[in-house]
Amino acid sequence: MENSALKPLLSLKYSVTLKLVVIAFLGLLLLIPTALIQSVIEERAFLNDEAIKEIGSKWAESQEIVGPILSIPIVYETEKDGKITRIIDDYHILPQDLRIEGKVLPEILKRGIFKGVVYRSDLAVTGSFMVLDDFDKKDFVGFNHAEAKVSFGVTDLRGIEDEVQFTVIGEKKQVNPGTGIFKVIPSGFSISMPNHEFKAGESIPFTIQLKLKGSKNLSFIPTGKTTDVKIQSPWTAPKFDGKFLPNNRSLTEEGFTAEWKVLELNRNYPQSWINNAYAENLKSASFGVDLLSPMEDYQKSTRSAKYALMTIGLTFLMFFLVEVLGKKNIHPFQYAMVGFAICLFYILLVSISEQVSFNIAYLISTIAVVGTICLYSLSLFRVKKYTLILATVLLGSFGFLFVTLQMEDYALLMGSIGLFIILSATMYITRNIDWNKMSLGKSEES
Q1: For the chain, percent of residues with pLDDT exceeding 70
Q2: In terms of pTM, does the model score above 0.70?
Q3: Rounded Cα–Cα distance for residues 294 and 420 (Å)
Q4: What radius of gyration do the chain's Cα atoms show?
Q5: How far apart are the first and last CA of the chain?
């Protein structure tokens, strides 16, 4: 009687269907710690961003170069009822040609365990203005030469490291803080040209030598009728962004070189205007380069954590096949321990990658977790062959994930192919199993 009463319980114990349900439930349950791990990674990434901002606030912010722009006050006089009214407008003229060449030398600064990229740059700006006469001539009296100036925009003036060498028509000029045309160029410096008599069609050459430091990004506004920019740097992780991409670029292990050429027709503002007519349009034409921080590794950690369910599912599948084919009986608690060990991989990855490079952190985490699971499986399987197969599966899984992380543009394709191969291999291995007659672990119990 007792044996007959225990038979339903024993059949449940060895039921393949029940075990599959339990394994699936455990896999879904492990999504909770996986989600918590992803939130931890996001929090660390946020702290990293805050540290980078703080580094930039102490060193110098991202820099945007604007200009130079020649500004000449135009005087108009109108007469009404015997009274003369004088109106003065600012006539802004952009360079006919503008060439910027420079070297950007990056540095890594630390704030605690976090790192941020800053740089020092040495820029040579050359070109020439041509005085135009395309303004409204009605009631025109003349130029106010005494108030004429050339303005040059720099986002964060703290980044200017040395005296600016500003030469116009072969004469070195005294550089003054502020632009005087704040709605066009909010921040920068300027020179006065009070003794120059401007004439239509006149060419005014200029050169500017500027040592400038900043953080993360260096951008330019194309103010020349033809703007040529050439930047060299030993940094190996640039990101070109903005309105225009480089016409020519070269990226090697020694760094990068980038060249831009922007024409007047490529932008949405003319060579000259009155007052603040095109101030907003200048901002829309910005282009430049980001120096990507090595702590972009947080993005890789986040992406790797998204594959946690796949890695857990693959490992559980391996354990289940050992149960089915090897007639072993593995308790759900033991499945859970293995699942938590895999979750621990992602915490190890993000914490170690804050101290060393991402690739080394990945290797250390993989060895630690795979080693732990394989040692644990020895006492479960009691057959070294199964443990070796498990080690191969785990190393293949983490190796596949690593390759996928390196190929960001092809991550979806690689993931799809990988899942297809896994499913195909599982179908092939289990093709001869009669699941209707299959039970778990009976050979050990009999």
Answers
A1: 86
A2: no
A3: 33
A4: 34
A5: 19
